[in-house]
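User: I would dearly like some help making sense of a protein record. This is the protein in question:
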Amino acid sequence: MATRKSQRIASRVAKPEAEQQWCDLAALPSELVEEVAKRLLDNDVADLVCFRLACKLWKNTFMLEPSALGACIHHRFHPHQWIMLPEQNDGDARRMFLNTVTTKTIRIDLPVLHNHAVVAGSAASPEGMLVLRDEDSLVIRVLNPLTGHVINLPSVKTLQRGRHRRGPVSRKFREEHKVTAAGFAGDSNVVIYFGEVNRMAVAKPGDARWTPVRGLRSPVLTTITFQRRFYCIDDENLLVLDMAGGLPRLVLAVALDNSLYNVNMLDNCGKLMVQCRRMQWVSRVSCHRSVILVYEVNLEEGTLMPVHDLAGQAVFAGDLGAVLLPSVMHWPCVEPNAVYFKFGLSQMFGVHRMGRPYPAYRDVVGTLAEYLAMYVTR
């Protein structure tokens, strides 16, 4: 008498060969596999990584191994939708990453982080990449956490001046040259900024040293990589890095009002936006109050245009930068058309609803929004 298990096995064996062939992944046409892979990559590089694991032959569709990518910067494989969440690791190399669109979280083992300082915040995570500083050699590395690809850049030691250039690195130099912001300029240049000493430098893979950036006067308040160009805001202006002639220098893009503070920049699907605060006089209570403002930047005309509606989107802003949620569909705890903000020693997040004069305050602890709060605040 046949058991249930043997009957199930017999029924599978008895199926016609044509009916079984659909599950032979390796037999799929290569053109179809490439088309599926391209569409997945257009959505999220994490989807492509998972796709390649489904079949050994599919790994050749897009070569994502670090050895295959080499020393070049491959922007199309960058994890634009992912952010690394700060947490206590106790020496563990695993880190948690959050997809800002789907709210999916994953843990990734990153042994390369050993003995490296990881720069925190959105201003230092261009296109989802991690900027690292080797604490022994002071070499700067840019890591793609999803593919494991590492871009090696020169040591910060090359920025030492004069007779100190060949000598030992002082403790003061190490402390002053901690990277506080970073980005990309063009297809191959990496930009780093040291807020402690207000210095900026540029290098590309294969360079022997960092090249200082000219035109930097006031301290930088925020930075962004937008359409492969590096932008920053100081006390009065929005500046763009000009690489013409091989001598990198900051040039004026848009003149700003110096009354703006707590400034951040955002990439809103190809539109550059500025989120900031300003003190405004409120006649009803006879005092100044801080208000949240959002602008769209017109780079061609060099102007700012006020934004009164975020079209269902939401922004989280803090001392370490800002994150734009293109949709709050998967964020039930987040209000659409609102700016969540927390600066300084405030314990609560302010919620500025676009179109309303004054913000409300909310505790985001215990909700999905707490992840974003951890990312943009100290």
Q: What stands out?
A: Residues 179 and 325 are 26 Å apart (CA to CA). The chain is about 15% helix and 35% strand. The chain has a mean pLDDT of 85.
